[in-house]
Amino acid sequence: MIDSSRRTVLTTGAAAAATAAAPQVFAQAPPAPQAGAVQGLPAGAKVGFYERGNVRIRYAEIGSGFPLLATPGGGLNSRIVNWPNAVINIPEELKNDFRVITMDQRNATNGESTGPVAVDDPWTAFADDQLGVMDALGIRQFFYFGNCIGGPFGMKLMERAPQRVAAAILSQPVGHRPDNPNVLWNSSMNGWAKEFRERKPDVSMETIEKYVHNLYRARPDFVYSVTREFAKTVQTPVLVLPDDVPAHPLQTANDIATLCPNAEITVYPWKEPPELKARTINRVRTFLKGKQTA
């Protein structure tokens, strides 16, 4: 386990100075989000759609303050309705602290986001969807929370737009497990792929297999979306919440915390007893508030 006190964390001044522009995504401006009941979110959430060409992403927001982009777990079925069953229900827990923005990922089953199967570079496609939502909302810099597949999402965002992610929480991050290298391939093919083919029979199984291959087999190491060499260059303050189940290796969480120069890691396990989990949630809140810019 890594002693977080030995980690050097970027000052808020450094975070405020990070203003270099990321590549802009040209998109149709979405209509103003509409208030109403949103399954999986607390009352008062607003929902809207971001569109770019043949990509359409449903997003929702709740709360006010510094923006926090939160991606739920669930693998390729990362979607808003997952939050009530998440290890930390971020929209509920942090709605009084931040402006929480969340979304259905592209083509998640029972989500409302759609788009092409981005075979050639799927991790970048997810990042561009996420950045596109923030662009459409007029949000330049933001905090990030990612659960499960949100670990690789967050690392890709920090590679794609490092000056925009002011701080990141990576909770139970997905990663490569050498002793069970096919766990994510199998879960995706046996779950998401079958469901997607039922909805989109015009997309061939060959295309889907190549897509899942490029997610989890093309770079069979670490968090899949970026390299270890990139992780060594990350200047974003990162807090890692480890797990140790087949898809969330403890070693991956430790590797992120070891490689990223400004990373901290919580104790493990942290989900039980309830008092420890509550302290961990409060650490998430305190960590982000400590990095908040003006």
Summarize the structure.
The chain has 294 residues and is of the alpha/beta class.
Tell me what you see in this structure.
The chain is of the alpha/beta class and 294 residues long. It has one domain (4-290): Alpha/Beta hydrolase fold, catalytic domain (Rossmann fold, 3-Layer(aba) Sandwich), CATH 3.40.50.1820. It is 33% helix and 16% strand. A nine-stranded mixed sheet has the order 1-2-3-5-4-6-7-8-9, sandwiched between helices. Strand 2 (46-52) and strand 3 (55-62) form a beta hairpin. Helix 5 runs antiparallel to helix 6.
Reported for the largest beta sheet, the result is: 9 strands, mixed
Low-confidence stretches: 1-30
Indicate the radius of gyration in whole angstroms. 18 Å
Distance between the termini: 33 Å
H/E order of the elements? HEEEEHEHEHEHHHEHEH
On the 0-100 scale, what is the average pLDDT? 90
**What is the helix fraction of residues, given as a range?**
25-40%
Proportion of strand residues: 15-25%
The overall strand count is: 9
Number of helices: 9
The CATH superfamily appears as Alpha/Beta hydrolase fold, catalytic domain
What is the CATH C-level name? Alpha Beta
CATH-scheme architecture: 3-Layer(aba) Sandwich
- Structural domain count: 1
CATH fold group: Rossmann fold
Estimated structural class: alpha/beta
Rough outline? globular
